[in-house]
User: Fold this.
Amino acid sequence: MVRLFRKERVMRISLAVPLLSILTGLPAHAQGNAEAAKGKNSTCIGCHGIPMYKTAFPEVYSVPMIAGQAPDYIVKALQAYRAGDRSHPSMQGVAKSLSDQDMADLAAYYGGAGKAVK
Amino acid sequence: MSRFLILALACFSAQAFAAGDADSGKLKSMACAACHGPDGNSPTSPDFPRLAGQHYDYLLKSLRDYKSGARKNAIMGGQVGGLNSQDMADLAAYYSSRKGSLGVIR
Assistant:
């Protein structure tokens, strides 16, 4: 009886979490805090903080501008590097060192920086 | 001999970096607009990147990487299938020439 009760409770909670997310309109992923990103973006600055900076390895091309990019896209890009779906060695290394919360914070910081961010 | 080398190098460079034409790129951008917005600056979902004003060589590399499989994405992998090198250069030229809200901060 106790065991049954517990199982039911777990089920209720597992149903309640996504339901709450739907009702409140909050996304299920981590909420980013732009302020918190300021202690986490020292690695980013070395390339993305320099106008017209070019990466030299594995090939030469301009490092993309990320300030003003959609925050959700920035998270997707970091996740893709972490998963190996995007191939830049430095970015793969950086992404693997970041937690989901770090990614959300950095996305909020850079995504909130543009002139016309939705 | 050195003249020949310079000429050969010039031909090779022209081949390797086919300059994109923004006007042609605009004509080829109909499919892109469905997700990235008509000017590349108003994506229809926050999951999709803004392209307007992004660096030409980065946009071109992205398209090439989708084509080669170095960058994996279900939507873009399908989209680049029908694009040749000139198409990719033209699209990169078009979007990099648009005014956008992308920039650099520290």
